Amino acid sequence: MKGRRAATTLGLRYAAAAAVTFVFLFPIYWLFIISFKTPDEIFAFPPVWWPANIQFANYAVLFKDGDVVAVWNSLVIAGSSTILAMFFGTLAAYSLVRFRTGGDDLAIWIISQRMIPPIVIVFPIFLLYVWLGGVDTYWGLVLLYTAFNLPYVIWMMRGYIADIPIELEESALVDGCSRWQVLMGVVFPMARAGLFATAVFTFVFAWNDFIFALVLTRTEVITYPVQVTHYFGGQSNFWAKIAAMSVLGTVPVFIAVAMLQRYLVRGISMGAVKG
Description:
About 75% of the residues lie in helices and about 0% in strands. It is an all-alpha fold.
């Protein structure tokens, strides 16, 4: 009797897990399928669950019109800002943990800057960028995303570094290592999972940003989220191009998460919530 009840419970759990998985995966499947459909199949009723003929032309037109450059722009901007934010943020976090720079008040102040809604500061930043000549430039968005993501990186890495026993660093210093050698040989390897986990989320934040990219770009460095909005019109929407561009825009994030998955699981469960 107990065995039958346990089997029933297990079956219900698997069924619930399958139902939840279906709910989350179906929009991804539908987006992917739409990118290969003809206009008639997209608007067909009842819905066409699988296209009769795969339409690669929906992707080809993005390359032909040069729209795919927006994905490259996002990759350059998000990647560059992530590298800079991780480098400077990790050094700042190490200073906060090991040297108590600014005390606990400075750490609280830093994370509070991440809570500012972007819409509040986008107009003053636009005026500043007009004066500096940073509108529609790579360096303008890279600098902005780096500054905007630094508080998140500092706060996360502060928790990861705090988990590293200070005795390991002291032993390395006694053996004659410099502070920089301690960072490269002890701190960074020990916090590797946290570094990769933080880098992935930082990259995603920069990749998905819309408001800053919308206001600060025109034609030269337009990013993927802004480019997608160009396919929405007052009279009609280009659903095939929207779906194709959306699929292309998810590929870099998917690859990054797939490659660093083992670090993500461990990094998220480490000491990032320590105060």
